[in-house]
# Entry
Amino acid sequence: MKKIFYLILIATLLNCSKGGDSLDIFSTSTKSITKETSSTGESDSNEDTTSTQETANNSDSEENETNSQDSNSEEESSTQESSSDETASLILDTSGGCTKFIGNGPIGEWFKFVDGSQDEAHAHFIFTSSDNGIIQIGETGFLDNNTAKILVAKTDASGNLVWKKEFGDPGHNLGNSIIEVSDGYIITGSINKNSIVIKVDKSSGNTIWSQTYDNGGTDAIEHLVETTSGYAAVGYINATDENNTFYTEGEGYISFLDLNGNKLSGKSFDSKMSHAYRIFKVENNLIISGLTAGAEDYALMKTNLIGEKDWVKTYGGEKKDHCFAMDISKDNSIYLSGHTLSGVDNWDTYTMKIDLNGNKLWEKKRGNPRGFNPLYIHDEVWDLKATDDGGCIIVAGTGDEYTYEESCPQSKDLSNVWQVYLIKFSSSGEIQWDKTYAPVSGDDWAGEAIDITSDGGAVIAVDNSQFGILKIASVQN
# Structure
């Protein structure tokens, strides 16, 4: 039975102790979210640190969520898709609380959502199309009880539904990413634990072609890029933790496809990359990012267009470092981000800039912007985008996962309520601003993916048990 959700946008400033920044509050009704759990680290997660020295060591095996699929069955969902835009009074007040924001981040402009046919929906990827539409991909349902289907939804620039499609019968299915090509959108993921690539029509979402590949064991494609001869697609094979959406304990793998999705060749990656997440084409090279074996460190690889390796490097500290985000700036610098336990009290954001030779230019850690006990707070990065001013913006979720709960003096903000967390970096690694966003209702939100909009703002895929879409005002400096 469907619930009616009332989503309310409030733009307000919540000034707390140290140079307080604003916390935009929205109203919606959501279900609980499961985020990453792990042991604590060391040091102080309230400080941000910068370094120009490359380290290459540990990271951490992680996370809980699930994916996998096989079958080309497609079905259109008919569930409630959007919210009202009513305004309500603020009920969450962190004024006089603990926050330690830097600078002044942008306001939130609106929040809407799309539902799937199953109990819950979770988007992993968002992008803005050439017609200014907003497209998300993920799952509706759950991997661990075999109810998941791939869900893809397109809205217009204001978040109004244009179309949505579901792929696969309920089972072990996963929607990972989507790109735009001249005559369609290309979807990646897995169906029944096998890799899948689907091309759909832009105006309707109807399938143009669908190709499934058994690359080895439980496998999936995470991301792909168009090349001169077709597509290069990366992901993993032989997953041993197959219900883990984030790190599957498998082997990194690249597939080369023609323009109709037929597989031409494939190969396992260097042992230094056990799970590939993102791939970009830079000049006549491929840049691929992911995690090392055991998810101990960030891994980055440069190859030619047929997958012959130029170099592979790892980056990290003495503990776990998980890399989930990459983008390429206009000057072809590489931005990586994720989260780390190295040199911090608990999971903190960990962002770095790297040149095309694999040399680290800077790195920065930042966490616990709401000022709670750093031993309990997770700041988990899932995506980033390079910005037109040469910097980048990362999106994360921030909150705690323990029986512990902390509030701030003179504030209703609670440590165990998750919020969307954005950090904007300059090209030199300076934090220009950071900010969190949350619903008035006090329900959990977390940022899963981000893309830049044509007006210089951003759209964020929000983990709120639907395909939440949060529109942010200008993020460019």
